[in-house]
Amino acid sequence: MASAADFLAHSQHPDGGWGYRAQTQSVSYVEPTAAAILALKDDAARGRARDFLLSIQRPDGGWGIAALDPESGWMTAWAVLALAQFPDAHDAATRGAQWLVNMEGLRVTDEPSRAVIRRRLQIDSTLRGWPWQPGDAAWVHPTALAILALGAVGKSSDSRARDGLVYLFDRAVASGGWNTGNPEMLDRPVPATIQDTAVALLALHAAGFDASDKRVANAIQFLRDVLVRAKTSAELAWGIYALRDWRVDVGDAPTRLNGLQNDDGSWRGNPFITAIAAMANQK
Questions:
Q1: Confidence of residue 110 (pLDDT cuts 50, 70, 90)
Q2: Is 187 exposed, middle or buried (0-12, 13-18, 19+ CB in 10 A)?
Q3: Domains in the chain, please, with CATH?
Q4: Which end of the chain has less Cβ packing within 10 Å, N or C?
C-alpha cells in the first residue's frame, strides 16, 4: 500500500498547491496546501507549495481560501503556520501575522445587549476572538488557528494572542472541550466536538498552558473519552494529533485510523485529511 507521502506527492498540483480532492486539475486551496507543507518532509514538494502560497498572498498581507478569492480571511492563519517553516518566507509570514493582529470578530459591547447574550448563551460578547471572514462574529476554530499562527512567528505574547486565549476559555463547554463557539444555546448545553476541541488544545499547548490547569484537563478528558467512539478519519486524525501533542495515551485510535487508510495512501482521497492523519502518525 502507498504511504500518505506518496499520495500527497502524486496529488500536488502543477502550481504547487493542493485541493480537497486528488485530481490535479482541481483548484488549489490554502488550507490543504499549508497542511501538506507541515506534513511532508520532501523539500522539493514543500518548496513548490511555499512558492504557491507566496504567489497568492494578498496586498493586505492575508490570504483568501484560494487564488481567486478577493478577500483575506481565516486561511491566513494556515498560510502563516506553513510559511513560518521557511526562513526565506519570514517577511510574508510576518505580514500575514500582522493581518491577523489587525482582525477581530464582531463584538457586542453595549451593556443591555451584552446582558441578554450572557443570559441566553452564557458568553461574554465583548471578548476579541477571530472570525472566519472579516465582518463576522468570532468562532473557536479560527481563533485557535490564529493563536497558533501568531505563536509560530514569535508573537505568542502579543495582546491579540492573549485576547484569543481569554476568548477560548470563555467559550469552553462546562463539561470539557469546545464546539464551534457557544457552550450553551437557550439554556441548553451545546455538546463539544472533536475537531474544535483538538484545535483549541493545540493552541493552548503552543501558548504554554499546562495539563494541570483544570480547564485544560477537562478538555483532554473529553477528547480521550470521545476518541474511543470516534469512527471517521477526520475525527480520529484530529483527536490523535491533539492528544499526542499533549503526550496523552491514545489507545487503539491510531490502529483504527490507519485501518481507514486507502490503498493509494490517502484518507478519503482528501489531501487535507491525509495531511492531518500523517501529522497525527508522526507525533
A1: confident
A2: exposed
A3: 4-282 (1.50.10.20)
A4: N
